[in-house]
Amino acid sequence: MSSSIKHPALSDIFNKDEARVNWHDDTLWWIRAKRDKVAHGISEWEILRETASQIKNNVLSNLHDYLMVFEANAQTNGIKVHWAANAEEHNKIVLSLLQSKGINQMVKSKSMLTEECHLNEYLERNGVDVIDSDLGERIVQLAKEPPSHIVLPCIHKKKGEIGQIFHEHLGTEAGVSDPQILTETARIHLRETFLTRRSALTGVNFAIAETGEFVVCTNEGNADMGAHLAEIHIASMGIEKLIPKKKHLSVFLRLLTRSATGQPITTYSSHFKKPRKGQEMHVILVDNGRSVQLGREDFRNSLKCIRCGACMNTCPVYRRSGGHSYHYAIAGPIGAILAPNLNMKEYSDLPFASTLCGSCTNVCPVKIDIHDQLYKWRQVIVKGGYTSTAKTVAMKVMEFTLSSSTRFKLAGKIGRWTLKNAPFTVNNQLNLWFKNREMPEAPKESFSEWYKKNNK
Amino acid sequence: MSRAAILSAILNNQPKQISLPKDLQFDLPAGAAVTEKFIQMVNLIGGRVVEIQRVEDINLYASEHFGAGERLVTPIEELDFYTPFTGEELPHQFVNTEFAVFETHFAVAENGAVWITEDRMGARVLPFICQHLGMLVSEENIVSNMHEAYNWIGNADYGFGTFIAGPSKTADIEQSLVLGAHGARSMTIFLLKNTF
Amino acid sequence: MKVGLFVPCYIDQFYPNAAIATLNLLKKLGVDVYYPLNQTCCGQPMANSGYEHLTKNCNSLFIQNFAGFDYIVSPSGSCVLHIKDHLHDDQREQDARNIRHKVYELVEFLTDVLKVENITASFPYKVGLHQSCHGQRGLHLSSMTELVDVPFSKPMQLLNQVKGLEIIELTRPDECCGFGGTFCVAEEAVSAKMGKDRVEDHLMNGAEFITAADMSCLMHMEGILKRKNSQVKVLHIAEILNAE
Fold first, then answer.
1. Do C226 and C141 have their domain in common?
2. Residue A293 located in a structural domain
3. Integer distance in angstroms from the first to the last C-alpha of chain B?
């Protein structure tokens, strides 16, 4: 989604319906609370986070070798390995694999990478019908919207709206919004899809260098239903999804779903090592900016992300601005530190969509210093010239004022005088503070004035 | 060729070697406490546990819960509805499977998951496509946590293996939990008790 | 022990009472405290907006004002955290490093350096404690709900010593108020909504006063309270700890 409308404006629109913001906020907070509850049930939780972080640090420092080892082992297992430098190459590889078998229909389980690459749009333009099989993804696909959350794609939709979509597209009765009935409808509709699609694409949660296998985690079973029925299984993965050894899965599988939804583990954690008899299995290793991010010392450890979404659920901004306000495939704090790497101009607003409260950093199961990176991206974006001139001028004026105590005191006097004697100059709709908040009351003297009088 | 370009960019940009952490070691509970935790977790994740004394007890459960016209499938030879597999079956033909039962390698107490590999599935799709799923777990094969689980798996080879924890589920519609998304609608653990 | 009092710019201009209470409290506790008159600002408003490169003069001025003290104490966790994380000066890096290590937020100075165990203050009201993020997650003034950790709270440790004070429980004990520096105007819609929600939690749970170790959060919440015509007031923690 390319858009010139930035996060503040999109959030403003989202906040027009306050009841809905409350509902969105409460829903996600509830998930954060579930995460807290299970995390607090594991006494070694912080040790697990530290261990996961260290394993991922090791991965990033050996990525070159691990990728080669993975490739060799996967090939030995009978998996075909492809390399894509960017989104376009990835999409072309998928298309050519389908075309080589004369396939024009595909079923796809959740893969944020394919959202990042805009695969669906590409395939549709090239005559391939794609059906997303994760329930939430299917819902937003039918609604012609991108997912608003990496784990909970339609968390922004109310069941009544989903019922309406199902009524229009899947023939449920008008007015039906019971999640049980809607899910059952989707189950029947997608069973038909699974049985008739010859190709399935899945994401990858973890790929293991040591064994050349990859792991896909779902609750719905949609990745398995797609992959085990299709004659060609394509798994798309970012190059950072590697882990060194199979035993390291123990650490990550303990953290992933507890962090994501507060479940002890996903219903299915499927280890794909070899294609089944008569099946083709392909892995596409995608760079798309990751090797560049690896070279950015301040930002490389964003590549440790295991896509649990905990930072979104905890983020007080995300909960009140909605996933679409980030206008990028990955929303929330993690999206805000990944997106500028791909397009600094387009996503220059995202690192500023945070109060730097730091909650994200402390829920992150692999200990990415998310809020520190947000701060650092701000510096990079300003230096790169991606902020408005008005803001730069304002900051220079501020600097000029604050770097001298004489100028500061004078400005303070003027400010307080204005608040007292001409409040209408600030208490108006041009002052964004005043829109929802009263200005502080101006005291008759500043602390320094008081101090001079009282501490001779 | 992108492969070379990607690898060379990575080699240039990756940080200095950082070593792997030590494996985690825990003092783990054993015996009845582990079984109890496992049962508790299975119930929590929407599964149920049926304790049995011998594998054949599953026959009784099956006859009580499923009708004569319903398709029951299992690769477990001791069971009345044992189904021989050639490995050549078209996976699609299992679509009308009402109930399928498999013998797991082991179960995990901390999350209620069971580990099963392809050689015990008959067909890869079967544990997912069946409407109701049964999993045979021997009580002596319950490990405490995922670290033990991967120690157990070790270097075992398989084409496909999976941890399954409960029935398939989704909460994508307003976070309302619904069992039976795309995989099995229910999961029953047949817990084969230790006989001393 | 010579202590320099660092009064952040907006406290100096808008909340002198918080600074006065800090000064008087420190004096009451026998601290030899000085207020360097030429101080202005820590530079955080620029730095958090992406203009850290414009803070050089603020940094030099800060060092000029505070290099000579054994400790620097301030009634603002956020500004203290900024100094701790970002104070640098090519000309006086050693001084900058020293300051980064001896700058304290007031509460932690009381609990960790002075080890205050008997506050002689009385404040017979229901008080909601707002955990300011930079103090809590940055300076570790208290444990946070995200971490699996032994719970502790330095502000609570002090408030518990105040006679008559009743702490109210919050539904969300440590959610951000949405101030965030320039965030409060750059992201007006979300910022204001966060502020409203935070205030609502205190109101719903019966607070008569809202306190914090950071005046900026309180300034934000005060703006919301006043717009609602609420009778609930904000007070910096120093004002409560100094209340007779």
1. yes
2. no
3. 63
Mean pLDDT of all residues in C170-185: 96
Radius of gyration of chain B (CA): 20
**Is C230 part of the contact surface with chain A (CB cutoff 8 Å)?**
no
A240 in contact with chain B, both atoms CB, cutoff 8 A: no
Contacts of B123 in chain A (CB under 8 A): 228
At residue B178's C-alpha, the angle toward residues A157 and A155, to 5°, is: 20
Work out the average pLDDT over C84-107. 97
What's the total number of domains in chain B?
A: 1
Task: Residue C87: give the domain boundaries.
Answer: 2-113
**Domain of A183?**
42-288
Question: Are A447 and A358 in the same domain?
Answer: no
- Cross-chain Cβ contact C197/A416 below 8 Å: no
A230 plus A242 within the same structural domain: yes
Number of domains chain A contains:
3
Interface confidence: ipTM more than 0.90: yes
CATH of the domain at B40: 3.40.50.10420
Domain ranges, residue B52:
28-83+93-192
Residue B170 maps to a domain = yes
If asked whether residues A237 and A266 sit together in one domain, one would say: yes
Would you call B189 helix, strand, or coil by DSSP?
Answer: strand
Tens of pLDDT, residues B115-141: 999 999 999 999 999 999 999 999 999
**Torsion angles phi and psi, residue B186, rounded to 5:** -145, 155
Residues C109 and C136 in one domain: no
Residue closest to B148 by CA, chosen among B135, B134, B163, B160: B163
Strand order in the sheet with C103-105: C32-34, C2-5, C71-74, C103-105
Whether B169 maps to a domain, the answer reads: yes
Contacts of range C46-49, beta carbons closer than 8 Å, 24 or more positions apart: C46/A395, C46/A398, C46/A399, C46/A402, C47/A375, C47/C82, C47/C86, C48/A356, C48/A375, C48/A378, C48/C82, C48/C180, C48/C181, C48/C182, C48/C183, C49/A352, C49/A378, C49/A382, C49/A391, C49/A395, C49/C181, C49/C182
- The one-letter code for the residue type at A395 is M
Residue B22 lies in a domain: no
Q: Is C182 part of a structural domain of the chain? A: yes
- What is the pTM (predicted TM-score) of this model? 0.96
Measure the CA–CA gap between A24 and A156, rounded to whole angstroms: 7
* Residues A27, A113 within the same domain: no
Q: Do A154 and B111 touch (CB under 8 A)?
A: no
With a CB cutoff of 8 Å and minimum separation 6, the contacts of B3 are A83
* C66 contact A CB<8A: no
Say how many residues make up chain C: 244
pLDDT in tens, A184-232: 999 999 999 999 999 999 999 999 999 999 999 999 999 999 999 999 9
What stretch of H or E contains C33?
A: strand C32-34
Contact C40 A359 (CB under 8 A): no
Q: CA-CA distance, A183 to B175, in Å (whole number)?
A: 12
